């Protein structure tokens, strides 16, 4: 068995910390020989900021970056070409003037941000997903391959930007949304599911033995791909429709509740 879990809204508490019960559930699973892998839309800094909870492998930036937590090494990165970034930025800007972009580059530890982007994103979201922020021009942002783009607007919601982004269907781009202030876009074909599949191939793990937890639109592909999947209480409708089963809310340590049941049934 391999357990794959989203973080925000799934594994973490509403204030973005790790509960003692969820921490204990990870430790018990690992002690039983079960790998527990975080699969998050956060960048690598947003994973590290929660502390040493996961000790093996991790997927960040919605599956575009794989990391070995035991060594700190990057296993793989998937990027959008500069042509794709430019095409997407131009088309979305034409449809929604005033949008500001952030490009996650490299292993996702550096964010190239346009002027005004950081002023729109709430401070707590930046604190939960820390990175080196480098203010760049639009031309500079579009001249670098990106593992993920994040998009904000002073008055248009992330949900509306996400829906607009999906309708645009820019070649080479996969639009998604984690439920926060920013809409997101990554390389086409790259999702939490594709990243998890790469990790499973590396480990020789069959997808039928994967148990996945999630709550957001960016979890849909992973929930559909896993052998058994759980949507958390309060999950987005897309996640609920994609999952096989329901788990209690993150406020109720739903991750731990299910993991404890899985371990008891072995």
TrEMBL record:
Instruction: Choose one Gene Ontology CC annotation of this protein and give it.
Output: cytosol
Single GO MF annotation: magnesium ion binding
Q: Sorted alphabetically, which Pfam families does this protein's record hold?
A: Hydrolase_3
InterPro entries reported for this sequence: HAD-like_sf (IPR036412), HAD_sf (IPR023214)
Instruction: State the protein's name.
Output: HAD family phosphatase
Query: What organism is the protein native to?
Result: Cutibacterium porci
């Amino acid at each position: 068995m391999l357990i794959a879990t989203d973080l925000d809204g799934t594994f973490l508490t509403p204030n973005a910390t790790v509960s003692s019960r969820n921490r204990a559930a990870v430790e018990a699973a690992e002690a039983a020989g079960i790998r527990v892998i975080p699969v998050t839309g956060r960048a690598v800094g947003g994973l590290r900021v929660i502390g040493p909870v996961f000790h093996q492998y991790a997927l960040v930036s919605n599956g575009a970056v794989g990391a070995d937590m035991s060594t700190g090494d990057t296993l793989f990165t998937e990027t959008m070409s500069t042509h794709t970034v430019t095409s997407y930025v131009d088309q979305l800007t034409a449809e929604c003037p005033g949008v500001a972009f952030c490009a996650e580059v490299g292993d996702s530890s550096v964010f190239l941000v346009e002027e005004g982007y950081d002023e729109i994103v709430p401070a707590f979201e930046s604190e939960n997903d820390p990175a080196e922020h480098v203010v760049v021009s639009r031309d500079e942002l579009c001249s670098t391959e990106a593992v993920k783009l994040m998009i904000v607007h002073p008055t248009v919601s992330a949900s509306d930007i996400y829906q607009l982004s999906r309708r645009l269907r820019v070649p080479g781009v996969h639009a998604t949304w984690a439920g926060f202030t920013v809409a997101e876009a990554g390389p086409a074909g790259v999702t939490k599911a594709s990243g998890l599949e790469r990790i499973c191939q590396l480990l020789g793990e069959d997808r039928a033995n994967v148990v996945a937890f999630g709550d957001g639109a960016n979890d849909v592909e992973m929930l559909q791909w896993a052998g058994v999947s759980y949507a958390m209480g309060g999950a987005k409708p897309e996640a609920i429709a994609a999952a096989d089963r329901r788990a209690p809310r993150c406020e109720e340590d739903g991750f731990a509740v299910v993991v404890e049941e899985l371990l008891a049934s072995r």
